[in-house]
Amino acid sequence: MNYSVRCGRKHSVVIDRKADFGRPFEVNVGKTRHTIQIRKVQEDGTLKTLMIDHRVCPVEIERRGDGMPVRVFLKGVPFDVDISRMASTRFRPPLPRAEVSGEVRASLPGQIVGILVEEGQRVAAGDPLMILDAMKMENEITAPMEGVVKSVHIEPGQVLAKGDLMLEIEAGAG
């Protein structure tokens, strides 16, 4: 994922979502590259301790109502975070239009971390819709088709079973 983050001043933060988060991975903040390793995760799946450039760093994340972070505490020091833009850096193969449904269902059980769209919003195929935390990994759920978000059936923090309806997209509406 590619994030635009405002923390005092604006930073571009790039995290390779394909990285194996069980091993060290790279995060670019502006022109500076850091090596990150997740050390401890709380029972609810939130981060507790990171290794940043080989130094232990306790982490707390304060989230707003939609699940997106607003403040990150690193070693107890608060950093206000405003994520103004998220753009996926993943390759998205073209989807066959005839076989695509506007229903977006949970492909695996998990918990909703953030909702990135709202009812009435136009989306393109492959646009990020929400973040689902499953098996201690945050998974970006993308739009299966172009259209308008007809209804959102979930809320941040909600726990889902496989197959639960999360969102509906109406093709060509708007």
Notes on the structure:
By secondary structure, the protein is an all-beta fold. Helices cover 0% and strands 56% of the residues. It is built from no helices and 17 strands. The protein has strands spanning 2-7, 9-15, 25-29, 32-41, 47-52, 55-63, 69-74, 77-80, 82-87, 103-105, 110-115, 122-123, 128-134, 137-142, 147-152, 159-160, 165-170. The strands form three sheets. A nine-stranded antiparallel beta sheet has the order 8-7-6-5-4-3-2-1-9, with no helix packed on it. It is globular. Residues 89-93 have low confidence and may be disordered.
Q: Could you give the order of strands across the largest sheet?
A: 8-7-6-5-4-3-2-1-9
Major sheet summary line: 9 strands, antiparallel
Tell me the distance between the termini: 28 Å
Query: Strand percentage, roughly?
Result: over 45%
Mean pLDDT: 78
Radius of gyration, whole Å:
17 Å
Please count the helical segments: 0
* Number of strand elements: 17
Unreliable runs, pLDDT <50, ≥5 residues? 89-93
- Specify the overall morphology: globular
The level of helicity is under 10%
